[in-house]
Amino acid sequence: MEPIVKPTLESRKEDSLPPESPLAFYQNWRDLLFLHWAYPPEQIQAMLPTGLHIDTYDGYAWLALIPFAMRDIRARFAPSLPSLSRMLELNLRTYVFDNDGRTGVWFFSLDANSKLGVRFARRFFHLNYLHSKISMSKSESTGGCQVTFTSGRTNATTDIPVEITYSFPSMPDNCLTAEPGSIEYFFLERYALYAFNQARGKLLRGRVYHHPYEFCAASLLNHDENIFELDDLPHPNRPPDSVLYSPGVDVSIHWPTLLS
Length: 260
Hints:
Blueprint: H1 9-15, E1 23-39, H2 41-45, E2 52-54, E3 61-75, E4 87-98, E5 103-112, H3 115-125, E6 129-141, E7 144-153, E8 162-168, H4 183-188, E9 192-197, E10 202-209, E11 216-217, E12 219-223, H5 226-230, E13 242-254, E14 257-258
Parallel strand pairs: 5-6, 5-9
Antiparallel strand pairs: 1-3, 1-13, 2-4, 3-4, 4-5, 6-7, 7-8, 8-12, 9-10, 10-13, 10-14, 11-13
């Protein structure tokens, strides 16, 4: 067995370069909240498929809960269609690298309110998308905005909704881009996703590309952690260790390829 290559700061920068794999879709991701909790690495490693390794920062694995809105979803060379171009999503992910040291994310679940989007992503990207009833409301006041995001799975055996309310500056003049090597860079600058093709018995790697995130601190007003229970993950039993908001990025989605 060949030795596992661990990522370096330079290889992480290389992972953010524009991909060469064929382009599939364009999407605009808007109003993203990043909630992060630290975990012992061995606890999360045990939940990953063979061939993926937990990526750590400060010696910890990290689980992230991310609610956001997708806008202007459209295929290459096609316009966006009003009935198909919008979707709300809530995903629960961790950070990984493969045997070649290439970094990315592993999704434990991706809840979305588009049945067509769920079917397509499960069929062609082999991601664990689940249909959910999701609502997102945004209200503005002097000096700030407040967002409430609620999600409930339509096929769940028990009715366990997830609700998150947070606020952020309405005109954030302190928005930053992440410095390489910082924890924000570790969280935000991820340009690949991994999935498992059951029929082939192999991992897939799919590239995404966008400009670096702009982000600012956010205030978490209310949240629950029901999704950890739904996904059979260890409950954090504490507030998030990091709360970040980004107004969003415009993204290109590329077709996944099988890992050898």
